[in-house]
């Protein structure tokens, strides 16, 4: 029998990673307990066990809940990647032979087209048997296109999926950030509060009504202040106006990231915490197996804002 080399042993188990991810998502042990279908004391004991195994503190205990330490952030990022790969491995072992399938994919929000095409090129190598193509013509109404059979899979932010012939799952989230020139008055602040946005010129792309409502609710709650928006259809236009000090660009980290290395733009976030926009993946039932494989792959493929921009 050929040698497979020395196997590395580790103290952490899959359950440990699941607990850490649940705590990072929920922010408190009580909410994480609900996600994991455990009691709060059981989750607290599980967290202590993880920290004892690693010899480091994973979360800081603060009055409002739990905040990941730098070591915790590293663990959370790695845990997500490992669990995604494990889920895909399990799925491939259970169904190792998948006949070639062609799936047509559309992204509801155009920001995804800043990275999805190159991601698909890589995914074609790691997902044999799937022929993935983009159908940009159906971006305006992806759910109707799904129901009509014009596409097979859709990446969604705000569109509602009716029960019936369609299925959906959570996918990932991207962060909406505020980009401005270093000379802008708000650049002097480490973080922004809602009052800052009321007084600023906000430069953004034309967005669906539902996405605008999501933004207002996340930032202002029930209040509906009158904001000054400048709608610019091109990402380059948004960034150029922000660079010139004409306002604050409001856009996804995916679009902002590549433009933040020259030092003529800075990023600010809300003091209340990252403004994360949830994404979902929806599909026709006959495309279920292919869509689940694509979901697993995409969950670990979306870009993130580079550390230099923070």
From TrEMBL:
GO terms for molecular function: DNA binding; DNA-binding transcription factor activity. InterPro entries: LysR_HTH_N, LysR_subst-bd, WH-like_DNA-bd_sf, WH_DNA-bd_sf. PROSITE patterns: HTH_LYSR. Residues 12-69 form the HTH lysR-type domain. Keywords: DNA-binding, Transcription, Transcription regulation. GO terms for cellular component: protein-DNA complex. This is Transcriptional activator MetR. It comes from the Bacteria. Belongs to the LysR transcriptional regulatory family.
């Amino acid at each position: 029998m050929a040698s497979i080399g020395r196997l590395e042993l580790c103290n952490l188990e899959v359950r440990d990673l699941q607990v850490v991810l649940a705590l990072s998502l929920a922010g408190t042990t009580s909410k994480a307990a609900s996600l994991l279908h455990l009691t709060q004391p059981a989750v607290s004991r599980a967290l202590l066990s993880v920290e004892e195994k690693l010899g480091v503190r994973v979360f800081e205990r603060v009055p409002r809940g739990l905040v990941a330490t730098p070591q915790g952030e590293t663990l959370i990022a790695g845990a997500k990647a490992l669990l995604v790969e494990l889920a895909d491995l399990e799925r491939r072992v259970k169904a190792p032979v998948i006949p070639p399938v062609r799936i047509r994919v559309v992204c509801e929000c155009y920001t995804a087209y800043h990275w999805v095409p190159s991601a698909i090129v890589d995914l074609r190598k790691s997902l044999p048997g799937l022929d993935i193509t983009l159908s940009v013509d159906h971006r305006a109404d992806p759910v109707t296109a799904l129901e009509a059979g014009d596409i097979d899979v859709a990446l969604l932010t705000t569109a509602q999926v009716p029960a019936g012939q369609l299925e959906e799952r959570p996918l990932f989230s991207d962060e909406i950030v505020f980009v401005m020139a270093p000379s802008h008055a708000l650049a002097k602040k480490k973080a922004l509060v809602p009052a800052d946005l009321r007084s600023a010129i906000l430069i953004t792309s034309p967005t669906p009504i539902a996405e605008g409502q999501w933004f207002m609710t996340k930032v202002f709650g029930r209040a509906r202040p009158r904001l000054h928006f400048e709608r610019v259809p091109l990402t380059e236009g948004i960034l150029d106006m922000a660079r010139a000090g004409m306002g604050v660009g409001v856009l996804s980290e995916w679009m902002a990231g590549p433009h933040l290395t020259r030092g003529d733009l800075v990023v600010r976030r809300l003091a209340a915490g990252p403004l994360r926009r949830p994404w979902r993946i929806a599909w026709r039932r006959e495309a279920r197996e292919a869509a689940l494989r694509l979901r697993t792959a995409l969950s670990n493929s979306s870009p993130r804002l580079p550390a230099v921009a923070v």
